[in-house]
Amino acid sequence: MYIYNITTNISEEIKFDWLYWMKQTFIPAMLASGKFKKAIISQVLVEEDMGGITYSTQYISENKTMVDSFVANELDEILSTHSKFKGSYVDFSTGLQVISEIDG
């Protein structure tokens, strides 16, 4: 299993608008690509020097080929929709490979 992670720091003033938009627009667009089977959005529990609130949105995929195809062919178009919040966030992306899942 592979995870495409986007970590975003968003200004406090628009956090509710941004979260609503993520849930209603951005995440559904990512899932509609067919490359991810689910998404998880979490708040990162750290106080940033720059302020704002940090979120991690993880998109779960069955294999690396699907993630690579998404990044190469679809990511730029979907990320361009972020312009709605231009200047109100910073973000970075990482790819993760799940090594093991252990249930408790």
Outline the structure in words.
This protein is an alpha+beta fold and 104 residues long. It has one domain (10-54, 64-95). Helices cover 32% and strands 32% of the residues. The chain has a four-stranded antiparallel sheet. The longest helix is centred in the first third of the chain and has 18 residues, at 15-32. The protein is globular. The model has no long low-confidence stretch (mean pLDDT 91).
Characteristics:
about 30% helix; about 100 residues; alpha+beta
Summarize this, please?
The chain has 104 residues and is of the alpha+beta class. It has helices spanning 15-32, 64-73, 75-79, and strands at 2-10, 38-43, 53-61, 89-97.
Work out the helicity level.
Answer: 25-40%
Number of domains: 1
The topology string of helices and strands comes to EHEEHHE
The Cα radius of gyration reads: 14 Å
What does the largest sheet look like? Answer: 4 strands, antiparallel
**Which of globular, elongated, flat, extended, rod-shaped describes the shape?**
globular
Average of per-residue pLDDT values? 91
| Strand neighbour order, sheet with most strands | 2-3-1-4
**What is the number of helices?**
3
What multimeric state do the chains show?
single chain
